[in-house]
Design goal:
Blueprint lengths: L1 H39 L2 H6 L1 E12 L5 E6 L1 H10 L5 E5 L3 E5 L2 E12 L2 E15 L2 E10 L7
């Protein structure tokens, strides 16, 4: 009897872990598709990862060192990618954290950005994704950008 209870509890635990892994993998896949679209210049792939009202922001310092948060126009970003040759915009990420609660996911990815094969800058991305119609989509992206302290 004890063995049966142990097996049942173990199976429930494993099932829950597998479901979370599958969910986490789905969230990561959306983020990866976004960056793959950037790298290959596929604006349709990028758009497929975004909600209708997606917000892009960046935290930047001015030349005098003042910190500000700037909202970027998503359509301008899409137009920029559309004009680039395949491989020009290469953002290399590392997943540090993925948290999921129901239809909300939060993702933290430090990155290094290469433009036309040359290192440009580094920073971190913070994504908020929502699950709509069974699909994870990016609702919000804010990042930092710097040229020093990247190693």
């Amino acid at each position: 009897m004890k063995k049966l209870i142990f097996i049942t509890i173990s199976l429930c635990f494993i099932s829950k872990m597998m479901a979370q892994t599958t969910t986490t993998d789905s969230v990561k896949a959306t983020v990866n598709h976004f960056f793959e679209g950037m790298k290959i210049g596929d604006t349709a792939l990028i758009r497929s990862t975004l909600t209708e009202g997606v917000i892009f922001q960046t935290i930047a310092r001015s030349k005098d060192g003042a910190l500000s948060v700037k909202t970027e126009n998503v359509d301008d970003f899409i137009r920029f990618i559309a004009k680039e040759q395949k491989g020009n915009a290469d953002e290399r990420i590392e997943f540090k954290m993925v948290e999921v609660n129901g239809a909300l996911a939060s993702v933290w990815t430090p990155y290094s950005f290469y433009y036309k094969g040359q290192f440009s800058h580094c920073g971190a991305n913070s994504f908020q994704l929502v699950k709509t119609d069974g699909v994870w989509k990016i609702q919000y992206l804010i990042d930092t950008r710097r040229r020093q302290g990247c190693e």
